[in-house]
Amino acid sequence: xxxxxxxxxxxxxxxxxxxxxxxxxxxxxxxxxxxxxxxxxxxxxxxxxxxxxxxxxxxxxxxxxxxxxxxxxxxxxxxxxxxxxxxxxxxxxxxxxxxxxxxxxxxxxxxxxxxxxxxxxxxxxxxxxxxxxxxxxxxxxxxxxxxxxxxxxxxxxxxxxxxxxxxxxxxxxxxxxxxxxxxxxxxxxxxxxxxxxxxxxxxxxxxxxxxxxxxxxxxxxxxxxxxxxxxxxxxxxxxxxxxxxxxxxxxxxxxxxxxxxxxxxxxxxxxxxxxxxxxxxxxxxxxxxxxxxxxxxxxxxxxxxxxxxxxxxxxxxxxxxxxxxxxxxxx
Length: 331
Description:
The model has no long low-confidence stretch (mean pLDDT 96). The protein is of the alpha/beta class. The chain has a single domain (16-254), classed as Metallo-beta-lactamase, Chain A. The radius of gyration is 20 Å and the shape is globular. The two termini are 33 Å apart. A 7-stranded mixed β-sheet has the order 1-2-3-4-5-6-7. It is built from 10 helices and 14 strands. It has helices spanning 58-71, 89-92, 95-102, 112-120, 126-134, 139-149, 222-232, 252-273, 281-288, 295-314, and strands spanning 16-20, 23-29, 36-42, 48-51, 79-83, 105-109, 160-162, 167-170, 173-179, 188-192, 197-201, 240-243, 318-322, 326-330. Helix content is 35%, strand content 21%.
């Protein structure tokens, strides 16, 4: 069975549309191939809650202004809080501008706050460049790619820590904060049990799969933690899934099953690639992620390949050897 998109939220990029009583989705443009990120505006008696901030550049700011007005939210007066689900620039990038525009506090998972400041507080790329080279990327390409992926971001000076398990007031209801690692170590999703809504961030997407990558700053075994988190969301009782990208959908358990199958297929594909002899991760990524990709996409493809190769090692299906560079082969 294939999970199908909802009939909700089919509006063009840059516009807002209602997806539930008091809940609006706004599609903010981003300047890379994903094309847009979905943010959410939730109305309450004490003000609006905004879920994610988007990428900070003029088209996204203009879309915030127009989309909020469509929903009936005055950004200058009506916003109570801004919740950022994780540190990626298409989710946190506009948080400072939005916080200053609204006067609202920006909230993020407790451990994500210092991490985001450390990662985005500098434009130094040397360590990341070496990481790419060690895993098989050409030095000249790695230097250029590192500058594309790592840069300084202007973040809010103050962010309010929130913690998994806590209940967050959300419009006329409340949402439980759920830790959802894998795509980002300290990503959160919001489960509004009373209304049957899951604000899924980038943990569960439809039509595409979340990038589960192993980066220099990653905790060990991100794919294992992602799959464990997915398993924990079975039977959650969410009838409406509101993702950070792509289409809204309703069949949560069906999508979890599809994602589990996808990652097992990807693991087996990579195992076959390294059966014939040792290969560098970048070489493997070029086989499993074919086509013309930007440098940004090549970095993400390498990180995702590394996460899957790491998982094969964890399961005893591959071996990893590191000298000056890193190679893998099938066990």
